[in-house]
Amino acid sequence: MRLGPRHPVLLWRRGSLRRQLLLLLVPALAAMMAIDTWLSYGTLRDAANRAYDRSLYGSIRTIDNAIGMAGESIQLTLPDAAMEMFESAAQTHVYYRVSLERAGKVETITGYDDLPLPAGDLVNNTPRFYDTQYLGEAVRIGVMARPVYRPDARMRVIIQVAETAEPRSALIATVWRSALARDLLLILLSAAILVGGVTYVLRPLRRVRDDVEARSPDDLAPLAFERVPSEVRPLVDAVNLHVSRSAAMAQSQAQFIADAAHQLRTPLAILKTQAEYAQRQLRDPDPEAARRAAGEAVGGIVTQLEQAARLTNQLLALARVRQHHGENAQEADAIDIIDAVAVAEQVALDYLPLARGKQQDFGWEPVPGLKLPVRADPALLREALANLVHNAIQYSPRGSRITLSATRDDETACLIVEDDGPGIPAGEREKVFARFYRRVGNAEPGSGLGLAISREMASRFGGTVELGDGAQGVGVRAVLKLPVGD
């Protein structure tokens, strides 16, 4: 499948932890700084308004203190300095208005009579501040109303002082720009610290990389690094686990090659010798003698081929069980549950002709209704049980009795192979489980792998193989035990 072109940002960040962290964290930092700047702007605006509003309120109080009553009229006596402040046209434009509210009507006493009043009712002696437009400029107005304190007076004075919003806006903009520049500097410093921190923290990984690159191809020793970050340690542990599995597999393959080379050397040499013997006999001038000698050599070749084929199968089975021996519990739980009784019945059918060929009484004793559910691979379990049956047939003399049976002992499934052959002394019963072990004086052909394979395969599924005396202390009783599956 052909992939389309990727976004340049995705291509840029791929393969670099620093770049990915920058792309993730810098926008997040910028968003946080933007929120902080916005909140700071609101706080700054409120603080500036409070400061300037206090100034407006001070002007209102100054005018209020200068108001007096002259009969039925209001008299305003402001100091000259105050008047100059209100009437100046400097950087800040200041406007004022003093009005008299009587019977719901407002009339201007002095000041700018078109200075707008706020919407809604005014509360006596409570200052109020609001923003509006006046003479084409944005202004901030402070207003306060107070009643006229005289008998039967139903009127009140309204004092308004306004100033243009430009000074406070300039102050807010100046401070806000400084805060924005500070936040941008913090973002840059944070990005630099992030890059430097990641570079410093990832130094142990560089040492791991250098160590792996410097290794030879056959060096499968685990990585030994203690000073790695805890977040990276699972990765190193996983690599070590993979290396250990590879080492076990390589060791198993090397062992298989060594076993095969050791065990197949003799059969191949015998085959070569017998083939050369048959070739020489065919040159005999006597045709009948040549045919008879060549037939004997070919018979020997067939026998050796059969033994070599079984040895090869046993070596492959041993390599297979070793390959799966290191699987963890989770992989073991994934194995299906099978009926061990069905596997035993099949083994009995497969080996019945071999027992009849040696004129042995080989039988399968089924238990009606017995089921032995076990968690095992059917092919491996069959190989393990088949090796026990084959050993009993091979090492028991003609006319012997061999019995294959199955039973359940609490939570253990037992597959039993019992014969009345020569038996195995108690002192050698553990030795015969060693690979290629051959009892002294045993003339029967074999490789000494059958019992070793059976025990290793049983161990693969949590079981074991035990040897004991047969019935009445004669022969061998081999028991393959496996835990009953759920």
UniProtKB/TrEMBL annotation:
GO terms for molecular function: kinase activity. It is found in: Membrane. Its main location: membrane. The chain crosses the membrane at residues 21-41, 184-202. It catalyses: ATP + protein L-histidine = ADP + protein N-phospho-L-histidine. Residues 259-486 form the Histidine kinase domain. Keywords: Kinase, Membrane, Phosphoprotein, Transferase, Transmembrane, Transmembrane helix. It comes from the Bacteria. Its EC number is 2.7.13.3. This is histidine kinase. It comes from Cupriavidus oxalaticus.
